[in-house]
Amino acid sequence: MTTPRKALIIGCGIAGPVMALFLQQVGIEAEIYEAQPTGMDEAGAFLNLAPNGVNVLKALEIDHLLEADGFHSEGMDFFNGDGKQLAQLESSDEEQRFGSRNVMIKRGQLHQVLRNEAIRRNIPVHFGKKLTGIQLHGFQHVTARFEDGSEAEGNFLIGCDGIHSRTRQLIFPNAPQPTYTGMVDCGGFAQLPSGLSTSGAMQMIFGKKAFFGYIAKPDGEVYWFSNVAWPKEPKRNELNAISADEWRQRLLHNHSSDPAHLLEIIESTPGEIGKWPVYDMPSLPTWHKGLVCLIGDAAHATSPHSGQGASMALEDAAVLAQCLRDSLKVEHAFAKFENLRKERVEKIVRQARRTGNGKMVSNPVAVWFRDLVLPFFIKQGAKASEEVLSYKVEWEREVA
Ligand SMILES: Cc1cc2nc3c(=O)[nH]c(=O)nc-3n(C[C@H](O)[C@H](O)[C@H](O)COP(=O)(O)OP(=O)(O)OC[C@H]3O[C@@H](n4cnc5c(N)ncnc54)[C@H](O)[C@@H]3O)c2cc1C
């Protein structure tokens, strides 16, 4: 590569800072522009970062930074709404099988770790920079415009601005919109009810009216979520208008016929319970145009049921940096990147949607049948996920 290149990175969530860190490794300067006025360290509940995602951070030698806040899940135990165990998955041998173990971590903590590392490595992060416009100047320069009236110029731009990406809307005004999946995810943090022991595994309960998942950290803090059927897409601020108390009562009602400890967890959760309508992205015809490329949720958001969205965003960052390192032209790098990634990520998006639909069964005959076949499907699913989890970015390798 002869000419120095500068990347404008839109969004400092998960993909953004990691994209900038990989670009720095291949000698490309990057600056990050984030819409929020400061780091959104309280935003969202928690994530399970899968071994393939942790392996990407390993390639940057920053996986150890998750140790202070994160912990490992030992597996998953599945139950029905009567408390009967349906299946069990072990994950304590992930290190041997995949090279890394999963990490459960609060979203805000993950954001903070990644952002601070970018700042520590002298990557400029500009807050309060909401992208509102993009202007392409042939195949040499791109200008980003922000809501505050400021502008930035670079040789190319990477949209890491999440599922409702403004970058995507600007370069592909006719692109398909995120699809609402008919479900609201909610959750929070509580203390483990007294007398309840835990195996260190994620507890997944197909409740009578809603799905519930929780895991206890070794210090006794419980990370939990519930998937609530909400057929009509909530209007902007509709969920925020529901008070914490009212939402708590709804959840208690939803889980009233499920094992009692779920109610204890909900009741003992202090303050607000986060609520997020669940979307995923239909396949986009392409992820790039001219000097602009989309990665992470901006290109291919999956619903949370896969536990892979963050890992896909991290893999994207590593692969795109390799493509930029190995291609003379930015447009060729973008095309190669899309080619290497699209099939893998879109398969995961489709699978996650099927998993989500399976959580919403309530008809008694369907529930009986689900309980019967679930052990088999969980085993099959675990086998199929080997391919997803064992993926490793060969960071030193030349991309063919
Ligand atoms: C409830 C829920 C639970 C989930 N659980 C998991 C899980 O367990 N495991 C997992 O792997 N994934 C999970 N996911 C998915 C995961 O959160 C996403 O896949 C991941 O955050 C994608 O990273 P990203 O960087 O592409 O986007 P984001 O993390 O959404 O980051 C986008 C950033 O861009 C900024 N931005 C937006 N618009 C603009 C603009 N106009 N200008 C500048 N900046 C802008 C945003 O403020 C944000 O900081 C979950 C998602 C949800 C909703």
What report would you give on this structure?
The protein is α/β, with parallel strands linked by helices and 400 residues long. The protein folds into two domains: 6-68 and 102-178 and 282-360, FAD/NAD(P)-binding domain (3-Layer(bba) Sandwich); 179-279, D-Amino Acid Oxidase, Chain A, domain 2 (2-Layer Sandwich). The chain has eleven helices and 18 strands. The protein has helices spanning 15-25, 51-59, 94-98, 107-120, 166-171, 244-254, 260-267, 297-300, 309-326, 330-358, 364-389; strands at 6-10, 29-33, 46-49, 75-80, 85-90, 103-106, 125-126, 131-137, 141-146, 151-154, 156-159, 179-191, 202-206, 211-216, 221-229, 274-280, 288-289, 292-294. The chain has a seven-stranded mixed β-sheet. A six-stranded mixed β-sheet has the order 7-2-1-11-18-17. Strands 8-9-10 form a three-stranded antiparallel β-sheet. Helix 1 packs parallel to helix 4, helix 1 packs parallel to helix 9 and helix 2 (51-59) packs parallel to helix 9. The radius of gyration is 21 Å and the shape is globular. The model has no long low-confidence stretch (mean pLDDT 91). Flavin-adenine dinucleotide is lined by residues 10-16, 33-36, 47-49, 129-131, 160-162, 166, 185, 276, 296-298, 304, 307-311, 313. This is FAD-binding domain-containing protein. GO terms for molecular function: FAD binding; monooxygenase activity. It comes from Larkinella rosea.
